[in-house]
Write a structure and sequence with these properties.
With about 270 residues, the chain is mostly beta strands. It has a single domain, classed as Lipovitellin-phosvitin complex, beta-sheet shell regions (Roll), CATH 2.30.230. The protein is about 10% helix and about 55% strand. It contains 2 helices and 14 strands, in the order E-E-E-E-E-H-E-E-H-E-E-E-E-E-E-E. The longest helix has 13 residues. The two termini are about 30 Å apart.
Length: about 270
């Protein structure tokens, strides 16, 4: 985290004040569409996904770190008539695999995730690296709006740099936040996100012996708006972004192939007290 601009006066340090008796529920709506980006090709909308996660505070340390337990309590897809049936069934299988996923997490008083873990006994139906499982973990890593160490006022800007592992890919993520509004314990942030990844090998499916897969390039960008309350964990967030990837691969006996994929993603996250 790096402060770029402290903003207007008056300024103050922003810190979360966790409450052990305050249980929350996170609700996430995910809509995606995919295309090759080639002229004359159409975009394929994928089934929307709706996930609810219960969050139960467990302890707060003297320096303000919160440990909480999390558990997926519902996960479903809404089928679309214009989505190929095999794509719909594949997404339903992934979503069904996370229906009982649970674990724990640790977050600092500045909203920075120190760890997010999965209970091994809960992940029997989820395949490591599945997109839905990774989406849950990334959502929990970013569930709270990240706050700078310094005193800030309206107009302040700060940057957060992260190294991510997404579906066996190494990704660099840069987010630039701007404090749009601050009233008491509540504030609003604008978030501009960019992700890049160098060319790298990907893990081929276990069912494809001798196969080799590579990500030749990846570029993602998006805009988010976050409304936070320093007395609560879950920020109210909307995100709209686009990811473009160039993938290559070959299997035993086949020549190499290259594919370009463009994904548009919309995510809405809301939190409520339980």
């Amino acid at each position: 985290m790096k402060l770029l601009d402290a903003g207007q006066s008056p300024r103050r340090k922003l810190r979360y004040a966790w409450h052990l008796d305050q249980k929350e529920q996170l609700a996430m709506d995910l809509r995606t569409a995919a295309s090759t980006g080639a002229p004359g090709t159409s975009e394929v909308p994928l089934p929307s996904v709706h996930i609810a996660v219960d969050i139960d505070p467990k302890s707060v340390t003297a320096d303000g770190e919160l440990r909480y337990a999390w558990r997926v309590i519902s996960a479903r897809t809404d089928a679309r008539d214009d989505t190929p049936s095999d794509v719909t069934e594949g997404m339903r299988a992934e979503v069904a695999g996370i229906a009982r996923l649970s674990g724990s997490a640790l977050v600092t008083s500045r909203g920075l995730a120190r760890e997010v873990t999965v209970d091994p006994n809960s992940s029997v139906d989820a395949v490591p690296g599945d997109q839905m499982a990774e989406q849950i973990l990334q959502t929990l890593r970013d569930v709270a709006a990240p706050l700078p160490d310094e005193e800030v006022g309206v107009g302040a800007r700060w940057r957060k740099l992260s190294q991510l592992d997404e579906r066996d890919a190494r990704v660099t993520q840069t987010e630039t936040f701007r404090l749009v509004d601050l009233q008491g314990d509540r504030g609003t942030l604008d978030d501009t996100l960019a992700q890049t990844a160098p060319p790298q090998a990907l893990r081929a499916p276990a069912a494809s012996p001798g196969a080799h897969a590579r990500m030749e390039s990846m570029l993602a960008s998006g805009e988010a708006k976050m409304r936070f309350d320093v007395s609560r964990l879950v920020s109210q967030t909307t995100f709209d972004g686009t990811t473009t990837m160039v993938l290559s691969g070959e299997s035993r006996g086949d020549s190499a192939r290259t594919m370009r994929m463009v994904m548009r993603v919309f995510i809405a996250i809301s939190g409520s007290r339980r």
